[in-house]
């Protein structure tokens, strides 16, 4: 009997469990798995280290885990190459079929929780509390929790109470202005940044508002909830929330250009996913985006609330995920030409990359929904 079905492998956590079980069963080892990163130039796609020689496991691992193409042992680590085309097509299909529900699970089905907060004033700390409360509720529902009054009542508060087991402590935000002035300052900054980008003083106010909110959400939720944030210490001109939205909008603009091409009969409609050759996505940038981000997303969702019943939640994991995914998208966008001329020899790769664009957009929008961010498709 095989350890895991290929159809469930799109969630990296499932593959991790199968791999750990395999090594535990055959070598009596607990392993720490390392994902590939562009800067490390790892010769392989997934690896784990061991002081014990595992050369004798190589052949059996390929035999038992059908998603594994090959693996090799080298002094103190085992490198594993996955069957890329099978993995990618499975991930893509799952995202497109699940849509907004991609990443959701029933791990805590039927468990009732409620999330409340202290009475707040007009401080930025209280804004952080409200954003955190909304994100916790969204994450809980995505992991199968029921939001109601007949279960654990979590209280999001800036007031520390060591005797409370249901307190989600929210760290203070050090800021010398109130919420209204803080938002105004953000709006001025975003307006200036946006005007410079389009070389014009005119920019739609609704877009400015959405970008401003995205900037605020990232600034206030990207740090672990019980840590203090000092907005006065950030002297850089970088705005991570805007960077994330900018890379999302890049993908949206590529997709829009393709759809316009279809309307104008320049391109054919996107073929059925079953006929697309995902084996053409061979670059490191494409593989990192698929394996480390699209495949990783369900695991991030699971881990974000794994200790929710102990009043601990990792909303900042979502923010970190968005930032790292956006960096991967930026590399993919800059190093690869997605849309090509409608020449028969070029279309298979273009279609594969368009599916990568489409599924990446879906994952972006799923995270935005959890964090209460409104998407800006055009910047």
UniProtKB/TrEMBL annotation:
Domain of life: Eukaryota
SMART domains in alphabetical order: DALR_1 (SM00836)
Domain DALR anticodon binding: 244-379
Cross-referenced InterPro entries: DALR_anticod-bd (IPR008909), DALRD3 (IPR037380), tRNAsynth_Ia_anticodon-bd (IPR009080)
Molecular function via GO: arginine-tRNA ligase activity; ATP binding; tRNA binding
Pfam entry (one): DALR_1
BP GO annotations: arginyl-tRNA aminoacylation; tRNA C3-cytosine methylation
SUPFAM superfamilies from the UniProt entry: Anticodon-binding domain of a subclass of class I aminoacyl-tRNA synthetases
PANTHER family in alphabetical order: DALR ANTICODON-BINDING DOMAIN-CONTAINING PROTEIN 3 (PTHR16043:SF1), DALRD3 PROTEIN (PTHR16043)
Name by which UniProt lists this protein: DALR anticodon-binding domain-containing protein 3
